[in-house]
Specification:
- The chain is of the alpha/beta class and 149 residues long.
- It contains five helices and six strands; from the N terminus they run H-E-H-E-H-E-H-E-H-E-E.
- The protein is globular.
């Protein structure tokens, strides 16, 4: 255990987050996402597992140590609901609240079509698989820069 570090952030995840640079992306996905096959094209090459944890809790943990990119208009993405792209399911509403708390301001989740999301996740630095069973608990976050001391 480490002080000040969320206990959900294990060594593999912290290693990936530390290696990510400005503009790199991490996909935080639900239990239904095809993570093993999609992650083969990521920098890490394999999914990082956070079984038994909701997408909301995983997002809270990651954003406790990773700033979102403030140089792009859309640093936070959500998978759109098939045939209803404007729908925002409860899991996405809860993640929106977690993002806003972490950022200290409103950072809107922007929808991305399901298959475009798969493609984008395959280009991410890493894919973090949660135990989230609610549908559409899938998100992509772009890493920002740390402020000067």
């Amino acid at each position: 255990m480490l002080w000040g570090i969320d206990p959900l952030l294990d060594a593999d995840l912290l290693f990936a987050l530390r290696r990510m640079g400005h503009g790199d992306e991490i996909a935080i996905v639900d239990a239904n996402f095809p993570a093993a096959s999609t992650a083969t094209s990521t920098v890490t090459g394999a999914p990082i597992l956070m079984a038994g944890v909701s997408s909301v809790r995983a997002v809270e943990a990651v954003l406790s140590v990773m700033p979102l990119d403030s140089f792009v208009p859309d640093p936070a993405l959500r998978m759109e609901v098939v045939d209803d792209p404007v729908a925002v399911p409860p899991v996405q509403q809860e993640v929106q609240q977690a993002i806003d708390r972490a950022a200290g301001r409103r950072v809107p989740l922007v929808g991305i079509e399901r298959f475009a999301f798969y493609d984008r996740a395959g280009e991410a630095f890493a894919i973090l698989v949660t135990g989230e069973r609610r549908h559409y608990g899938c998100f992509i976050f772009k890493k920002g820069v740390l402020p000067p001391e």
